[in-house]
Amino acid sequence: xxxxxxxxPRYVTPGFKPFDPVKLARETEKIVTRIRNGRCxxxxxxxxxxxxxxxxxxxxxxxxxxxCVFCWVGWSRDFPEKLGRFYSPEQxxxxxxxxxxxxxxxxxxxxGAEPTLGKDHLLSLLEYVEDSEFPLFILETNGIxxxxxxxxVRRISRFEKVHVRVSLKAGTPExxxxxxxxxxxxxxxxxxxxxxxxxxxxxxxxxxxxxxPRIMTPEERASLIKRLAEIDVNxxxxxxxxxxxxxxxxxxxxxxxxxxxxxxxxxVYTPIRDIVMEPEKEK
Length: 283
Ligand code: SF4
Prior knowledge:
By secondary structure, this protein is of the alpha/beta class. The chain has helices at residues 21-32, 89-103, 119-130, 144-148, 150-156, 173-180, 189-199, 218-231, 248-257, 272-276; strands at residues 33-36, 39-50, 56-61, 85-87, 107-111, 136-141, 162-168, 204-208, 240-241. It has one domain (21-276): Aldolase class I (TIM Barrel).
């Protein structure tokens, strides 16, 4: 079903057949990684720095194992065979270092894709980061591979400079399928990733597209929050809740998927962190 060709999932459309995200991860890895001279090379389209996280050098990688309807990243997500060029872990690190020095920032990350695709590439890249002058690498992930490969999380836990950001997309299996294109059975995988990260004591926090009532009902949000609390209620203290940003690619994907959202966004939910950490009122 997932051979690269007409069956390879690109973007969600009405009537889209849900895919297995683990199988899609493996199929996408065949496109975006390759072995050269014993090293796992991965495709990237650019290296630069942005203002997020107070300034961070960013490698814009290619390929993901979900197809979120609100995804902002470029079309390299949907057509990974057409865009980007291969870099070894050392070359990717040198390009990140170059961007960091040019823009005078000291944090690093991979964006534009799912960074955990290409396990050997990422682990080798992190070896360079660990030995470098840079204090922090932010690893943004959808949690699919960390949920099914506990050994991957164990190996990530060896790196002291890595902070993981796990991004949840939905609060119920049905909503997960509708918003990511993946089979509803895979809804639990990112929560398993969170459990694995806790088990290995990795520095991490959870983000969720849960502040935007246009894409998440109050019931779905409550379900997501409850599921996180079942794992560890402390996760809610650092929950980073997001709203959809109207990037050109986001608007195009929402339209292709048949979602009709009103802009601008008029109301957002109160972030859980603000509710949980509200100071006690004077009696
Ligand atoms: S939002 Fe993230 S996880 Fe979802 S498709 Fe885009 S890159 Fe992949």
